[in-house]
Amino acid sequence: MIQMTNYTGEGAYIVISLLNPEGEYVETLNVIGDDDEWYNTVESWWDFYGKKRNDIDAITGATVSGGERTINVIEIDNDKLDKGYKLRFETAVEDQDYYESDVEFELTSETIKSKVEGQGFIRYIRMMPQ
């Protein structure tokens, strides 16, 4: 679950990515915001995605505005746990700021059951393993 701060303005674009232990993008897990005209505002991810342009239609959804929350299902292979891989939540809002690591944490057996505070538009995320 992603809980947003009470900011004003347009809905946030949020990209959830899997990073390897070296901090490099491995995979795009979810994109919240389905108007590809604005994808380049999520700058670091765009440097990765924009080169490959993989089909992400199945993992996109509407933006989330200030004060709202959203629940998204992301699939993470168990072999990524406790191996140094990280989840990164990048956020951007039109005519406002961009946060490369609004939320970023290492994937461990403990963190996938936790609540992690955001640094920008995200108040917090809460992981709920299935």
TrEMBL record:
Top-rank taxon, per record: Bacteria
Pfam family, one: DUF2271
Name used for this protein in its record: DUF2271 domain-containing protein
Organism per entry: Winogradskyella psychrotolerans RS-3
